[in-house]
Specification:
Blueprint lengths: L5 E5 L3 E9 L4 E8 L2 E8 L4 E9 L5 E3 L2 E5 L7 E3 L1 E3 L7 E3 L8 H7 L4 E6 L11
Antiparallel strand pairs: 1-2, 1-5, 2-3, 3-4, 5-6, 7-8, 7-11, 9-10
Length: 132
């Protein structure tokens, strides 16, 4: 079973790890390292951008989240892909990089993360989106 976890983007704090989400009071509790110490903040669910962990890792062991931009190796050498949620798959729903024509889940599975590298995300590196 895939571990369920999130990270959040806030326009002031930047990228944060999510400790918990309380939909009853519309709050996201996040942790952010500042000056070598972790600080906890409360964000509004409505005003923060939540990104779910895909359960996948890149070739360096880095966790891949929704909103990440990855660089592909074989068989799509050098292609940049934005990771997003795909509601329409043959075997249910899941995360799959479907932002490039001709790329499919089989390509992704064949690589097994060995030729995939996270190079940024859509919030901190918006200039990379133009390359995707």
């Amino acid at each position: 079973m895939r571990e369920i976890k999130f990270r959040a983007w806030d326009n002031v704090l930047g990228l944060c790890s999510v400790e918990s989400i309380d939909f009853a009071v519309d709050c996201v509790y996040v942790r952010k390292p500042i000056d070598k110490e972790f600080h906890t903040y409360t964000l509004s669910v409505e005003n923060s951008q939540l990104m779910q962990y895909t359960g996948l890792h890149d070739k360096n062991g880095k966790e891949i989240y929704e909103g990440d931009i990855v660089k592909m190796g074989w068989p799509r050498q050098g292609i940049l892909i934005k990771i997003e949620w795909n509601e329409v798959m043959d075997e249910g729903t899941g995360f799959i990089p479907f932002t490039r024509p001709g790329l499919d889940g089989e390509d992704w599975e064949n690589m097994g993360g060995e030729d995939v590298e996270v190079i940024g995300n859509i919030y901190e590196n918006p200039e990379l989106i133009e390359k995707t």
